[in-house]
Amino acid sequence: MLRIGIDLGGTKIEIIALNDDGLELARRRIPTPQGDYTATLMAVATLVEETEGHLGQRGTVGIGIPGAESLATGLIKNANSTCLIGRPLKRDLQALLQRDIRLANDANCFALSEAIDGSGQIAETVFGVILGTGVGGGIVIRRQVLVGANAIAGEWGHNPLPLPTADEFPLPDCYCGRRGCVEAYLSGPAMAADHHRHTGELLSAVEIDGGASSGDTACEATLQRYEARLGRALASVINILDPDVIVLGGGLSKMQRLYRNLPISCGQHVFSDVFETKFLPPTHGDSSGVRGAAWLWD
Questions:
Q1: What is the DSSP string of 227-282?
Q2: How far apart are CA 213 and CA 198, in angstroms?
Q3: Is 4:15 a contact under the CB 8 Å cutoff?
Q4: Strand partners, 16
Q5: For residue range 136-170, what is the model confidence (pLDDT) as tens digits?
Q6: Which domain holds residue 140?
Q7: Same domain flag for 12 and 102
Protein backbone atom coordinates (compact mmCIF):
# COMPACT_ATOMS: atom_id res chain seq x y z
CA MET A 1 0.00 0.00 0.00
CA LEU A 2 1.26 3.47 -0.87
CA ARG A 3 1.24 5.82 2.11
CA ILE A 4 1.51 9.56 1.47
CA GLY A 5 2.39 11.95 4.29
CA ILE A 6 2.17 15.75 4.28
CA ASP A 7 3.89 18.03 6.78
CA LEU A 8 1.94 21.28 6.52
CA GLY A 9 4.19 23.81 8.23
CA GLY A 10 4.19 27.56 8.53
CA THR A 11 7.06 28.03 6.07
CA LYS A 12 7.12 24.83 4.01
CA ILE A 13 4.92 21.98 2.87
CA GLU A 14 6.68 18.62 2.56
CA ILE A 15 5.35 15.43 1.02
CA ILE A 16 6.70 11.90 1.33
CA ALA A 17 5.55 8.58 -0.09
CA LEU A 18 6.33 5.33 1.74
CA ASN A 19 5.75 1.68 0.93
CA ASP A 20 4.63 -0.91 3.49
CA ASP A 21 8.19 -1.35 4.76
CA GLY A 22 8.71 2.37 5.34
CA LEU A 23 10.94 2.72 2.27
CA GLU A 24 10.89 6.26 0.90
CA LEU A 25 9.65 6.32 -2.69
CA ALA A 26 9.34 10.05 -3.25
CA ARG A 27 9.84 13.33 -1.42
CA ARG A 28 9.34 16.99 -2.28
CA ARG A 29 9.24 20.30 -0.41
CA ILE A 30 7.70 23.64 -1.44
CA PRO A 31 7.17 27.00 0.34
CA THR A 32 3.86 27.41 2.17
CA PRO A 33 1.63 30.13 0.68
CA GLN A 34 1.69 32.77 3.40
CA GLY A 35 -1.66 33.67 4.97
CA ASP A 36 -3.64 32.21 2.07
CA TYR A 37 -5.91 29.32 3.04
CA THR A 38 -7.20 28.56 -0.45
CA ALA A 39 -3.72 28.62 -1.96
CA THR A 40 -2.54 26.27 0.81
CA LEU A 41 -5.31 23.79 0.00
CA MET A 42 -4.42 23.87 -3.68
CA ALA A 43 -0.70 23.45 -2.94
CA VAL A 44 -1.36 20.31 -0.89
CA ALA A 45 -3.72 18.86 -3.50
CA THR A 46 -1.24 19.53 -6.30
CA LEU A 47 1.61 17.87 -4.38
CA VAL A 48 -0.49 14.74 -3.83
CA GLU A 49 -1.66 14.57 -7.46
CA GLU A 50 1.84 15.08 -8.85
CA THR A 51 3.39 12.51 -6.51
CA GLU A 52 0.77 9.90 -7.38
CA GLY A 53 1.21 10.65 -11.07
CA HIS A 54 4.96 10.18 -10.75
CA LEU A 55 4.58 6.85 -8.91
CA GLY A 56 1.66 5.63 -10.98
CA GLN A 57 -0.52 4.67 -8.04
CA ARG A 58 -3.03 6.13 -5.62
CA GLY A 59 -2.25 6.24 -1.91
CA THR A 60 -3.63 6.98 1.50
CA VAL A 61 -3.04 10.53 2.73
CA GLY A 62 -2.11 11.62 6.24
CA ILE A 63 -1.44 15.25 7.15
CA GLY A 64 0.42 16.75 10.09
CA ILE A 65 -0.43 20.32 11.03
CA PRO A 66 0.81 22.81 13.65
CA GLY A 67 -2.51 22.70 15.50
CA ALA A 68 -5.42 20.36 16.07
CA GLU A 69 -8.88 19.61 14.76
CA SER A 70 -11.69 20.46 17.18
CA LEU A 71 -13.64 17.32 18.05
CA ALA A 72 -16.73 19.51 18.55
CA THR A 73 -16.74 21.46 15.27
CA GLY A 74 -14.23 19.84 12.94
CA LEU A 75 -12.51 23.21 12.60
CA ILE A 76 -8.80 23.82 13.19
CA LYS A 77 -7.74 25.28 16.56
CA ASN A 78 -4.48 26.13 18.34
CA ALA A 79 -2.59 26.52 15.04
CA ASN A 80 0.61 28.53 14.71
CA SER A 81 -0.34 28.93 11.03
CA THR A 82 -3.19 31.31 11.79
CA CYS A 83 -4.82 31.11 8.34
CA LEU A 84 -5.87 27.54 9.27
CA ILE A 85 -7.69 28.54 12.46
CA GLY A 86 -11.45 28.15 12.24
CA ARG A 87 -11.24 26.38 8.89
CA PRO A 88 -12.64 22.94 7.98
CA LEU A 89 -9.27 21.77 6.66
CA LYS A 90 -9.96 18.05 6.69
CA ARG A 91 -13.33 18.41 4.97
CA ASP A 92 -11.95 20.75 2.32
CA LEU A 93 -8.97 18.53 1.52
CA GLN A 94 -11.16 15.43 1.37
CA ALA A 95 -13.33 17.19 -1.21
CA LEU A 96 -10.30 18.22 -3.26
CA LEU A 97 -8.57 14.83 -3.09
CA GLN A 98 -11.83 12.82 -3.30
CA ARG A 99 -10.91 10.41 -0.52
CA ASP A 100 -10.78 10.13 3.27
CA ILE A 101 -7.69 11.64 4.86
CA ARG A 102 -6.29 11.50 8.38
CA LEU A 103 -5.22 14.65 10.16
CA ALA A 104 -3.04 14.97 13.27
CA ASN A 105 -0.96 17.45 15.21
CA ASP A 106 2.60 17.62 13.88
CA ALA A 107 4.06 16.65 17.27
CA ASN A 108 1.83 13.57 17.29
CA CYS A 109 3.16 12.71 13.83
CA PHE A 110 6.73 13.10 15.07
CA ALA A 111 6.06 10.78 18.01
CA LEU A 112 4.30 8.21 15.78
CA SER A 113 7.17 8.12 13.32
CA GLU A 114 9.69 7.45 16.06
CA ALA A 115 7.42 4.83 17.65
CA ILE A 116 6.81 2.95 14.39
CA ASP A 117 10.34 2.62 13.01
CA GLY A 118 12.51 5.07 14.91
CA SER A 119 14.13 5.49 18.31
CA GLY A 120 11.06 4.26 20.20
CA GLN A 121 10.13 1.29 18.03
CA ILE A 122 10.65 -1.31 20.78
CA ALA A 123 8.90 0.79 23.44
CA GLU A 124 5.29 0.42 24.55
CA THR A 125 4.87 4.12 25.43
CA VAL A 126 6.71 6.91 23.63
CA PHE A 127 6.59 10.61 24.44
CA GLY A 128 7.81 12.71 21.54
CA VAL A 129 9.02 16.18 22.53
CA ILE A 130 9.42 19.17 20.23
CA LEU A 131 11.93 21.76 21.44
CA GLY A 132 12.19 24.50 18.86
CA THR A 133 10.43 27.75 18.03
CA GLY A 134 7.69 26.34 20.25
CA VAL A 135 7.38 23.44 22.69
CA GLY A 136 5.04 20.56 21.90
CA GLY A 137 4.62 16.88 22.42
CA GLY A 138 2.88 13.74 21.27
CA ILE A 139 2.02 10.46 22.98
CA VAL A 140 2.04 7.07 21.26
CA ILE A 141 0.95 3.91 23.09
CA ARG A 142 1.36 0.55 21.35
CA ARG A 143 1.82 2.29 17.98
CA GLN A 144 -1.37 4.33 18.38
CA VAL A 145 -1.46 8.12 18.77
CA LEU A 146 -3.28 9.26 21.91
CA VAL A 147 -5.54 12.14 20.87
CA GLY A 148 -7.53 12.68 24.06
CA ALA A 149 -11.05 13.84 24.91
CA ASN A 150 -10.17 17.42 23.95
CA ALA A 151 -7.65 16.62 21.18
CA ILE A 152 -4.82 18.09 23.26
CA ALA A 153 -3.01 15.00 24.58
CA GLY A 154 0.72 15.71 24.81
CA GLU A 155 0.42 19.51 24.98
CA TRP A 156 2.81 19.77 27.92
CA GLY A 157 4.19 23.07 26.60
CA HIS A 158 1.11 24.91 27.84
CA ASN A 159 1.25 23.70 31.41
CA PRO A 160 2.83 26.00 34.02
CA LEU A 161 6.55 25.47 34.63
CA PRO A 162 6.77 23.47 37.89
CA LEU A 163 8.50 24.88 40.99
CA PRO A 164 9.52 28.28 39.57
CA THR A 165 12.52 29.80 41.28
CA ALA A 166 13.06 33.47 42.18
CA ASP A 167 14.89 34.26 38.92
CA GLU A 168 11.99 32.80 36.91
CA PHE A 169 9.67 35.61 38.00
CA PRO A 170 7.87 37.58 36.76
CA LEU A 171 6.09 34.84 34.83
CA PRO A 172 6.66 35.44 31.11
CA ASP A 173 3.75 35.89 28.75
CA CYS A 174 2.97 33.05 26.33
CA TYR A 175 1.41 33.50 22.89
CA CYS A 176 -1.52 31.34 24.02
CA GLY A 177 -2.67 34.14 26.34
CA ARG A 178 -1.47 32.52 29.56
CA ARG A 179 1.60 33.31 31.64
CA GLY A 180 4.38 31.05 32.91
CA CYS A 181 3.88 28.27 30.34
CA VAL A 182 6.63 25.71 29.84
CA GLU A 183 6.95 26.98 26.25
CA ALA A 184 7.68 30.49 27.48
CA TYR A 185 10.78 29.13 29.28
CA LEU A 186 11.95 26.25 27.08
CA SER A 187 11.56 27.27 23.43
CA GLY A 188 14.61 28.37 21.47
CA PRO A 189 13.57 32.05 21.60
CA ALA A 190 12.93 31.67 25.35
CA MET A 191 16.46 30.40 25.90
CA ALA A 192 17.82 33.36 23.93
CA ALA A 193 15.68 35.77 25.97
CA ASP A 194 16.88 34.23 29.24
CA HIS A 195 20.51 34.62 28.17
CA HIS A 196 19.91 38.24 27.18
CA ARG A 197 18.21 38.96 30.50
CA HIS A 198 21.22 37.66 32.45
CA THR A 199 24.06 38.89 30.24
CA GLY A 200 22.79 41.60 27.89
CA GLU A 201 24.05 39.50 24.95
CA LEU A 202 21.80 38.78 21.97
CA LEU A 203 22.67 35.18 21.07
CA SER A 204 20.61 32.43 19.46
CA ALA A 205 20.19 29.03 21.12
CA VAL A 206 22.69 27.56 18.65
CA GLU A 207 25.23 30.26 19.52
CA ILE A 208 24.69 29.73 23.24
CA ASP A 209 25.32 25.99 22.86
CA GLY A 210 28.46 26.71 20.84
CA GLY A 211 29.65 29.23 23.42
CA ALA A 212 29.22 26.76 26.26
CA SER A 213 31.16 24.12 24.30
CA SER A 214 33.99 26.65 23.91
CA GLY A 215 34.17 27.40 27.62
CA ASP A 216 32.01 30.54 27.83
CA THR A 217 30.84 30.55 31.46
CA ALA A 218 27.81 32.77 30.82
CA CYS A 219 26.58 30.45 28.05
CA GLU A 220 27.21 27.44 30.28
CA ALA A 221 25.13 29.04 33.05
CA THR A 222 22.27 29.67 30.62
CA LEU A 223 22.26 26.03 29.53
CA GLN A 224 22.36 24.83 33.12
CA ARG A 225 19.29 26.95 33.91
CA TYR A 226 17.60 25.57 30.80
CA GLU A 227 18.38 21.96 31.69
CA ALA A 228 17.10 22.42 35.24
CA ARG A 229 13.80 23.83 33.92
CA LEU A 230 13.50 21.12 31.28
CA GLY A 231 14.13 18.46 33.91
CA ARG A 232 11.38 19.81 36.16
CA ALA A 233 8.92 20.12 33.28
CA LEU A 234 9.54 16.61 31.93
CA ALA A 235 9.45 15.06 35.41
CA SER A 236 5.85 16.19 35.77
CA VAL A 237 5.03 14.40 32.50
CA ILE A 238 6.88 11.26 33.56
CA ASN A 239 5.09 11.16 36.92
CA ILE A 240 1.78 10.95 35.03
CA LEU A 241 2.58 9.09 31.82
CA ASP A 242 5.71 7.11 32.80
CA PRO A 243 6.91 6.59 29.21
CA ASP A 244 9.56 4.04 28.30
CA VAL A 245 11.24 6.47 25.91
CA ILE A 246 11.28 10.23 25.43
CA VAL A 247 12.44 11.19 21.95
CA LEU A 248 13.62 14.79 21.61
CA GLY A 249 12.92 16.64 18.37
CA GLY A 250 13.12 20.21 17.10
CA GLY A 251 16.22 22.35 16.75
CA LEU A 252 17.26 22.19 20.40
CA SER A 253 17.28 18.39 20.31
CA LYS A 254 20.61 18.64 18.47
CA MET A 255 22.32 19.75 21.70
CA GLN A 256 24.08 16.50 22.63
CA ARG A 257 24.56 17.53 26.26
CA LEU A 258 20.81 17.15 26.87
CA TYR A 259 21.04 13.38 26.55
CA ARG A 260 23.79 13.28 29.19
CA ASN A 261 22.30 15.78 31.62
CA LEU A 262 18.54 15.23 31.48
CA PRO A 263 18.57 11.89 33.34
CA ILE A 264 20.08 13.81 36.29
CA SER A 265 18.08 17.05 36.15
CA CYS A 266 14.84 15.16 35.50
CA GLY A 267 15.39 12.06 37.62
CA GLN A 268 15.67 13.98 40.90
CA HIS A 269 12.04 15.12 40.52
CA VAL A 270 10.56 11.75 39.48
CA PHE A 271 8.48 9.97 42.12
CA SER A 272 10.34 6.66 42.03
CA ASP A 273 13.32 4.91 43.60
CA VAL A 274 14.63 4.05 40.12
CA PHE A 275 14.60 6.08 36.92
CA GLU A 276 14.65 4.03 33.72
CA THR A 277 13.09 6.38 31.14
CA LYS A 278 15.46 6.82 28.20
CA PHE A 279 16.11 10.13 26.43
CA LEU A 280 16.95 9.55 22.78
CA PRO A 281 17.54 11.64 19.65
CA PRO A 282 15.20 11.03 16.70
CA THR A 283 16.21 8.37 14.21
CA HIS A 284 14.58 10.26 11.35
CA GLY A 285 15.54 13.79 12.38
CA ASP A 286 13.65 16.53 10.56
CA SER A 287 11.84 13.88 8.48
CA SER A 288 9.99 12.35 11.42
CA GLY A 289 6.96 14.64 11.16
CA VAL A 290 6.22 13.92 7.52
CA ARG A 291 6.92 10.19 7.95
CA GLY A 292 4.55 10.08 10.91
CA ALA A 293 1.82 11.68 8.82
CA ALA A 294 2.19 8.84 6.33
CA TRP A 295 2.04 6.28 9.16
CA LEU A 296 -1.34 7.65 10.35
CA TRP A 297 -2.77 4.91 8.11
CA ASP A 298 -0.71 2.13 9.75
A1: HHHHHHHHHHHHHHH--SEEEEESGGGG-THHHHHHHHHHHTTSSSS----EEE--
A2: 19
A3: yes
A4: 5, 27
A5: 999 999 999 999 999 899 999 999 999 999 999 99
A6: 119-282
A7: yes
